[in-house]
Design a protein that fits this description.
elongated, 126 residues, 3-stranded antiparallel β-sheet, 52% strand, 7% helix
Length: 126
């Protein structure tokens, strides 16, 4: 499948690239340890699962209160299905991801509501 103009879909809904702070998106694959142990000689051993774990991080750009509910709804669950652009495979992949705790910061509060600062998002594949 060719790139379709988005980096991630969360729960089947495209998360618009325009919500991401420019230059903040990163994609990482790392091995998953299945079992680790030390033998009688004190040598460490590890076995790995066949599939690596994906971690996706990005920042949500500063935004107004009028956008906040739409953005925050993407992260209302702790565990979500994510379709993401896999830069290694040059195709979309899908997995179940945990959303790391999010801290929403107010830069200021105006008459029409809060103005939110950039917010770090981390999605770790289960």
């Amino acid at each position: 499948m060719a790139y379709s103009g988005y980096r991630i879909k969360i729960g089947g809904t495209i998360f618009p690239n325009t919500y991401m702070a420019k230059g903040s998106y990163s994609f990482q694959r790392s091995p998953r340890v299945n079992k680790s142990w030390d033998d009688l000689n004190g040598i460490s051993h590890k076995t790995y699962y066949p599939n690596d774990r994906t971690t996706i991080t990005f920042s949500i750009r500063e935004h107004l209160a009028s956008e906040h509910n739409t953005i925050a709804l993407f992260f209302a669950s702790r565990s979500v299905t994510v379709q993401y652009w896999n830069e290694i495979a040059n195709d979309y992949s899908e997995g179940v991801f945990d959303i790391e705790p999010i801290t929403w910061n107010h830069i200021t509060v105006k008459q029409d509501g809060a103005f939110y600062g950039a917010t770090q998002i981390t999605l770790k594949e289960q």
